[in-house]
Amino acid sequence: MSGHFITFEGGEGAGKSTQIAALHDFLTSRGISVVCTREPGGTPNAELLRDLVVLGETGRWSALEEMLIMYTARSELVRTLIKPALKEGRWVLSDRFFDSTTVYQGYAGGVPLSRIRKLNEIVLGNFGPDLTLILDVPTNTGLHRVASRAETISRFEKQKVTFYEQVRDGYLQIAKENPKRCQVIDGTQSQMDVSQQIEQIVVKHFDAELAP
Ligand code: TMP
Fold it and tell me: Which residues, at least 6 apart from 71, have a Cβ–Cβ distance to it below 8 Å?
């Protein structure tokens, strides 16, 4: 039996990494083999592309060029890691996937959504996540959380607040249009409450396979 593909989405500082680690532990404790990855990145080649697109000055790439880099990295990640893992029956948890391009390069970056859809169709056909968990936090809360981190500031984190408001609205719009695939979770709750809500959603979504 093939595995399942779950993606985590949200603006900066939404708490995705913590929740991916928690879901990894939960699924592993149920005997499921889990692979965690991230975008852009996840393979040696795609990590090189991540550095190109995430580091440097904001004006380094246009939104259209960012989209092309993201899909190059995504194509390789899907081909070499995600599809083979699913074929082996493993579950794949990804920190971001195609909704990030729709939101960051489309809704916030201004690339027409129809162009992103066309490229998506060329690269992925009808391949996509079985479930997408969108961690939603108010823009200022997310940016505050990011500001307190010690990591290097990425090109995207240098954007204006209005950019992040468009990111947040874009995710909510995607959730509205894809109610079967997407679940929005209030990321302002405690980490424990968010994890429990995610576990409940996952158990409900993959009912038969997760029955104790
Ligand atoms: P991260 O900080 O969550 O690891 O993501 C790196 C940045 O890349 C984040 O600011 C969002 C951005 N991004 C896009 O703009 N488009 C994409 O398709 C992806 C996957 C990420």
Answer: 101, 119, 120, 123
Residues 3/35/56/111 CA torsion (nearest 10 deg): 10
Ligand 1 binding pocket includes 11 (Cβ within 6 Å): no
Residue with tokens 């795609």: 46
Q: What's the 40 CA to ligand 1 centre distance in angstroms?
A: 6
Question: What spacing in Å lies between the alpha carbon of 31 and ligand 1's midpoint?
Answer: 31
Q: What is the pLDDT of residues 127-177, one digit of tens each?
A: 999 999 999 999 988 888 888 876 777 888 888 889 999 999 999 999 999
Structural domains of the chain, ranges and CATH numbers in brackets: 5-210 (3.40.50.300)
- Taking the whole predicted model, whether its pTM rises above 0.70 is answered as yes
Within 8 A by CB and 6+ apart from 67, the residues are 101, 105, 109, 111, 115, 116, 119
203 sits in the region (left: phi over 0; alpha: psi -120 to 50; else beta) called alpha
User: Could you identify the atom of ligand 1 that is nearest to the CA of residue 95?
Assistant: 3
Residue 156 Cβ < 6 Å to ligand 1: yes
What is the Å distance from ligand 1's center to 17 Cα?
A: 13
Q: How far is the CA of 2 from the centre of ligand 1 (A)?
A: 28
